[in-house]
Amino acid sequence: MHRVGSAGNTSNSTRPRKEKRLTYVLSDADDTKEQIIHHCAGINCLAVLKASAPDACDYLFTGSRDGTLKRWALTENAATCSATFESHVDWVNDAVLAGNNTLVSCSSDTTLKTWNCLSDGACSRTLRQHTDYVTCLATAKKNSNIVASGGLGGEVFIWDLEAALVPVSKSAETMEDDCENGIISAGNSGMPITGLCSISSASSISLHTTQSHGYSPIAAKGHKESVYALAMNDSGSLLVSGGTEKVLRVWDPRTGSKTMKLRGHTDNIRALLLDPTGRFCLSGSSDSMIRLWDLGQQRCVHSYAVHTDSVWALASTPTFSHVYSGGRDLSLYLTDLTTRESVLLCTKEHPILQLALHDDSIWVATTDSSVHRWLADGRNPQKVFQRGGSFLAGNLSFTRARACLEGSTPVPVYKEPSFTIPGTPGIVQHKILNNRRHVLTKDTAGSVKLWEITRGIVVEDYGKVSFEEKKEELFEMVSIPAWYTTDTRLGSLSIHLDTPQCFSAEMYSADLNIFGKPEDDKVNLARETLKGLLAHWLAKRKKRSGQQASANGDVASKDMAVRNHSQSRIEIDGNADSDSMVYPPFEFSTVSPPSIITEGSHGGPWRKKITELNGSEDEKDLPWWCLDCVLNNRLPPKENTKCSFYLHPCEGSTVPVLTQGKLSAPRILRIHKVVNYVVEKMVLDKPLEGGNSDGTYAPGLPGQSQLATLGGDGSFRPGLKPWQKLKPFIEILCNNQVLSPDMSLATVRAYVWKKNDDLVLNYRIVQGR
Fold it and tell me: Biased-composition ranges for Basic and acidic residues (predicted)?
């Protein structure tokens, strides 16, 4: 598993508070809606919901490392995605069905979320209690209100969903006080928040409700290390947990008290199963062993050496007579718990993460984004053994490994799955190109693609070519500040924007092919990207507010104005348009829209597609600096965007000396503007009076035209011809290298000058050009 840095500093530290980040996750759908439905990363969990009526269909729920869950309507030879559950901001690690209507999921974002499993995918509640990744869940089949959760923090909590999800009417002030530590709704601020419990006992629980009408889950405390597996009996009277401590702990979930500790495994316990009565327990471990425990006798009664590597997934037949097991060795086995007879059902190309029995088939989830259904004869498993190829499981972990080395590897019963729900290849390698608008990626299928991140689309699919060779081929000698960061932990490109760094990159409108703007207008890449991402939100917001937007305060309210002035200086982007027009280089697809991951002042992180924002989101939901940028046209104070340089004649040249001091210009200024400046100075022979010591010129004084030309704001002296047609022809050099007119000062400094001191440019006349 991976760890995710915190979104901000929530402590009482005197250090400056880190502002909330905005992330957008790109989707590669190739403009076809069919591809949007598939997962793009490994499948961590499975859950099957049987039809409640004869004419209804069964459903399969899948939870993925791409951060989403999906509901698949199953027929004999088809699976249709009927809903995507999107709210988690990190891997979905486990999911269970609590009754016929509630789906509960847990994630590396430290939360549990509840969903109406037959709805369109809206999250009904977010439960915040864990301090680290939540890795596993367990539920009681006959008591659908009870769900247990465990995580890397060694915490185990038992939730009463009926109590936890009871709507509570609270004032806005109380909600703001509770948001930091409570169980919160994923919806608007009017939804209920309940409190947390504090834990003080080493082996039991201590209930403390922060609000008289709040709810606190039961905390079963005893694990000193990470918890990776949980199991609960049907009635909810027994809970078993296991993890990196290599022991099984048995709890009474009604009180949180520990009843026993069982030793036997020599490595991390990754999977647990309880029989319906709670008498027998099966455990799978990274020591490659499966163990059967008699909880009444408090001992291990059988050990099964079936696998040659870690056992990560277990599923039993309804009678608990046979167990299906899979893991890191890519193999799925069926074992008779009484006779110890085992058979290899199939082998995969990827490690097996979870199993779900479905009538006479079994669904298999792996680190791949596809889900496969294999024949399993779950209602009559003896039929599988009649096919032959079985062996007796040993009771020592090295017996299967030794048999494998001796060439007696079993032959799988099945070669191909009976059905597959395909996934989309996940991105495993990426490189941000120098232009800072394109990212080159490689996916698990070996395809190399070029993304334009300011539009969120693939602009070129190169197929299965060498990533390194394509990276070299696309190299550009251009220098633009790193205004975003990216990762691929969710199987897709995640673009992270952090203020104020994200506002450091600018380009001329001509370089972006933006028509209708002066070619020398500077365009802030982050600002325009934010406008594109929030265009749907802004349109719905305006529709909601109507003509009363200003009367209602918009987001530029007194509260926000106070916050802006108290936390940082803000600059008005004078070159930016005051409207919300989105230019073509920043228009995001509505067929495969990106998802936003962010958080505001309250409620914690959330995730939603940009087209699903309803316009009601405000500073409580979105970072204030994003809203200030999009609504108020205000950007944080810019760092030094100027480049200082000297402009001298080439050595031995007879051209006159035009400047005596240091010049200063925007870093994105093109060399052809420097050529214009030199020609204008030479042709017009303007004196240098009025110049400042830094080479810029005061407004209204002689020399202002040089500032206009050098500053690149598009205001040229009347009658001045374009630089390409000026004679005599001027060349600009740096380190004796002739510079391309399209190079920027930043590029020259980074790739030609390569020094920390002030840039030195030289000019000369080239005759006969």
Answer: 556-572
